[in-house]
Amino acid sequence: MNALRDRNIFATNQRGGPLLTIADILVLLALATAVLLGVTLAIRSPEVLSGPTLRLEFGALPTYALLSVLRMAAAYFLSLFFSIAYGYYAAKNPRARQIMLPILDILQSTPILSFLPVVVLGLTAVLPQGLAVEIGAVLLIFTSQAWNMTFSFYQSMTTLPNELGEAASVFRFNWWWRFRRLELPFASIGLLWNSVMSWAGGWFFLMAAETFRVGERDFRLPGLGSFLQYAAEQNSGPAILAGIGVLVLIVVVLDQFIWRPLLAWADRYKVELVENDNPPTSWFGDLLDNSRLFGYFQERVWFRLIARIDRRFGRASSNRESIDGPRTIVQTWLRRILLGVLLLILAFGAFSLARLLFGVSLADYLRMFGGTLATLLRVVVSLVIALIWTVPVGVLIGSNPRVANILQPLVQIAASIPATAFFPLIIAALIGFQSVPDIGVKLNAAAILLMLLGTQWYVLFNVIAGATAIPQDLKDTTNLLRFTSIERWRKLILPSLFPYMVTGLITAGGGAWNASIVAEYTTFDNKTYNVTGLGALIKEATDKGNFPLLAASTLTMIITVVLINRFFWRRLYKVAEDKYRME
Question: Which distant-in-sequence residues (6+ apart) come within 8 Å of 24 by Cβ?
């Protein structure tokens, strides 16, 4: 029995290739050039900037909540468009894939919190402060939402069952019909569950974006995240509870009116021969189905819009064998000229980066080496803890709709509450824990706990998606064969979940490295608590405006995570590719 098999999203066409390819190096240089441009602009930004005056009045909460939801929605739709377009093109174009996948690999490994000061300071140098901070906040949330959705869509595009692709060829589907009728529906379950995760994870980074400060520059934004952070700083229990109450209300409303109807709708696209006896349901979805007004909207607006798009793109396919198609001599030379210009820019970026890195002392490089090992150990511990509890809970939610009706909103609420609001309080509670006298042990435990709170949901939601996608006919087969619980887990559940667990763990790993920036260096009650770690070094460089140290430590984190992905996760994806695919 074969379960879903995932294509290797990192591997090249050869086994055992180099851990860092030429494409990786070019992408790293391009990223470094972009950072240098941002640093150059950041130096020109105003020395002193004042932020808005925040209010802890309950009457301000509706306005703050609306502003936060609008930022989240803008970032989500941008992430959704990016994920589908990027994942589709990377799956369809083998030549472009050689560059696009290293880009995706490195971007999801990039500690976005360390780039926030560069992005925001750079934007304020060329744009009005309000607009610059809003754009920076949306970009930060986008980078927290897009990568796991892109991974999920690319995985679905490359694990499409061969028999479905052959059927599309028999019916002579062009690219549009194949995308709309086959590929997008097949990817809908994983894409929707990762969308839920993206919204939940977005709240974490929304708070960082709305409460951002650098020295005398105050870039705070009015919103729910800044309200919670300000309430925590002022130690206002009623304001914290009110802010959390509004956040929980938003999560429940989104779950009942958006995500649950969409997940119930997507269940019809599961690849199975036997219909599920207990499919997921949605009271609001059923209400819409019985609504005459909604039916009128579908008939008069939605279906007509889809029909126009079908007429536009649903024409007979051309004779092109790939997206690339034949190139003329002019196109070839244009590509060569653009490539030459790009290489010159990258060479300048490499030279400028080298000058910047030479400004970092040897002592700081030694601190980076020790900090990298310490942060790596915390990341591994947090991932192991996350895996232990998320697999059984995720399988329970994904395979039992009745349990899902109860637990799904709860885990969404828990994942959506920005843990950064409670970081100072958690640190204070652990420091005051008298049973453990060693302050170092307390701070390390607090750092691991904070990293776990920010990353465990990536694993959970991917496990839920994998459990939901297990075909009903395979479940019935295990019942007919009278499998024991251990046999069912060993022969069906774990093989089916394997690609999803790898995807969840790799995105959780990237999130853990990001979370280390705020977990290893925290200020509470006018006191700074930090442990040895690469994240603490990045936060220290940010607070002091030490751009050479910030660039060096950020580049160290990127290279470390990329090497881990290539050395460890590549092999796990290869195992999934060789053994686990639904056929």
Answer: 102, 105, 106, 562
What pLDDT does 320 receive?
A: 44
* pTM as predicted: 0.73
Name the residue among 157, 181, 176, 171 with its Cα closest to residue 86: 157
CATH architecture of 62-270+280-315+328-579: Orthogonal Bundle (1.10)
Residue with tokens 């900090």: 371
Least Cα distance to 35 among 272, 299, 356 occurs for 356
Quickly tell me which residue has 């995105």 as its tokens. 507
At 469, give phi and psi (nearest 5°).
-80, -5
Alpha carbons within 13 angstroms on the beta-carbon side of residue 250 total 26
SS (HEC) of 462-490:
HHHHHHHCCCHHHHHHHHHCCCCHHHHHH
Report the alpha-carbon distance of residue 540 to residue 454 in Å, rounded. Answer: 20
pLDDT of res. 187: 87
Residues 6+ apart with CB under 8 A from 142: 75, 78, 79, 82
Are the C-beta atoms of 49 and 216 separated by less than 8 Å? yes
What is the residue extent of each domain of the chain? Answer: 62-270+280-315+328-579
Q: How many CB atoms lie within 10 A of CB 167?
A: 12
CA distances from 360 to 39, 354, 356 (A): 16, 10, 8
Q: Which residue ranges of the chain lie beneath pLDDT 50? A: 1-17, 317-326
Backbone angles phi, psi at 361, to 5 degrees: -75, 160
Q: Is residue 177 a contact partner of residue 26, using CB atoms and an 8 Å limit?
A: no
| Per-residue pLDDT at 526 | 62
